[in-house]
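ok so I'm stuck.
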Amino acid sequence: MGVALLDLSTGEFFISEGDDSHVSKVLQSMNPSEVLYSRARNKDFENLLKDQYYSYSLEDWLFSKDFAYEKLIRHFNTQNLKGFGVEELPEGIAAAGVILHYLSENKHSRLQHISRISRLDAENYVWLDKFTIRNLELLQAVHGEGTSLLDILNHTQSPMGARMLQKWIVLPLRELNPIEERLKLTQYFFENTDLGQILRQELSHVGDLERLISKVSLQKANPREVVQLKRSLAIVAKVKTICQNSNLPALIQLADQMNSCLVIHDRINTMLVDDPPIALAKGGTIKQGISAELDEWRQIAYSGKDYLLGIQKKEAEKTGISSLKISYNNVFGYFLEVTHTHKDKVPSEWIRKQTLVNAERYITEELKQYEEKILQAEDRIQNLEKSLYDQLIYEISEYTVLIQQNASVLARLDCILSLAYVAILNNYCKPEIDNSLVLDIKDGRHPVIEKNLAIGEAYIPNDIFLDNDSQQIIILTGPNMSGKSAILRQTALITLMAQIGSFVPASAARIGIVDKIFTRVGASDNLSVGESTFMVEMTETANILNNLGKRSLIILDEIGRGTSTYDGISIAWAITEYLNSLAHKPKTLFATHYHELNEIAKESTGISNFHVSVKELQNKVIFLRKLVPGGSEHSFGIHVAQMAGIPNQVVLRAAEILSGLESERSKMEINPNTGNVSSLQLKMFDSEDAISLKLKEDLKSIDVNTLSPIEALMKLNYLKGLLK
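replied:
not stuck anymore, here's the structure
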């Protein structure tokens, strides 16, 4: 399949190709407002989209490469698409062409801000499926009002930076050099806090350059937005100078990619007033001295009183009528008013318009011409200002590519500054990134949970070591609420943060590059499409098992809990064995309450048992939240139920039932080689008393296939009588 993505407000245009899972991942990461697809493949796309997006189908012929290719090279004014690196992506080209066609059909004709199309290569980014993005709460908390990783990392100062950081989080890098480049910049600002603060302060005054220049290209930018663009360009010049004066080559390279656009900055500054109205029609946008004609009409419109006083004074001196005055009404417009005492002094060229009791009203040719000018001055001012403003907008649009480049560089710098600021604020360390298959985290912490602890409460850090041989799988047991899920999630988050170029919440970390992060966490259903909680759990697990590789990091939390105990244990056991048996052994953290799984480690290489420790004190449980080697045999679920407010009567009864079940469970034996469970007899058959022997003998003699319902009930009543 091919997929193309366009943000009309910024001009960002991406293209990619892959199977349906790749396209689905791209859609999940970018979360588009609308999806266009071919009507001929309606069922395929309905299965892919599953009502997750607002979608619209188009005729199949629009999705041909030839039609799309012509559309694209005509738009970009190029002979081919080789310069964009997308020439060999026919399905992606078809998708991109459809977008341009769709825009033209919806009256979007001015698209100069869509100046390039970029290839979005799956192999450049870590695979994060929709379950992982949700389970790790990367962009938003599952429960709405909570805190996401984005909330923790986002201290960007510009709208462009905020958008780019969101993309970085859902598209972590998987190539060593780009990751190290980001880390070097982050480290530089981590160590040079004063410079970082100066740049953050400058960026806080930058407008949304991407959307401002897009509005210019679409001819929708109002005067205030153009002035904001001018101010932002002035900040670009400042930031460029600051970066050029640094001693870091990577920062100097960023400075070289910026263009101050001084010509267009000065042009805007020359033409527009510093504080224009939002609407051009309100007037007063263009400065004085730009157009002599505009200044003249403004003089007429805004200095009319002085002009009329001038006419009045001139006519009074010429005629000797000392009481002459100029007035206005809606019927006659402007007129000269003369009392009857002086009417014999009125010149013959004056035209009488009205006779009053004590006076006469006249108009002159000059007054008539001035009135016509007054009436048309507002229209003329508006037309002249619009003409000059449109010319300015056209001149600015010629700088679209340069301003978009500035926006991209500032956004990148803003993200780096934000990551450095967060690292200082939260005491993060610089991770060591390499191409090994080792994941070694010292004193790791959960970046979100540690910020939401009560005042005075410290987060308990933990070490995690995983590789593909000696410790490929960690089976993590321990009580409810002890912190198992936090340890799982923090491992995935630390890995992800390192690969976006961020420092991490740990005292030290060595991260062998991961290409895919999978998580299976929590319980949820999807009843709208007929999927139960357990079906959703198995679907997510199947997605993991069918897509993993040697560089994958897998986080499993409570696999098999949505079905019966023995079903669940069997599934969890088989999955663990499968992951351990693969030639490309993925690093796996598996938290479970199935303590039986601890048995696997006894006979399998690369599987280790750990548990989160607790301390029992006077019938209370203290959660130490510390990871220690070895398995655990207790979950303390009843204790947690009590903490949640379950009535005491229920809690006490549950404790009684648990005691009975545990005494039965002690008679179970699990063979670690086969996973087989033995000694699962009813308690009544454990003894060899006469009644038990009689029951066994009678049950063995029954042929259930020949019994009628009445005979079965009678036989059951007989067996029941033996127990009395």
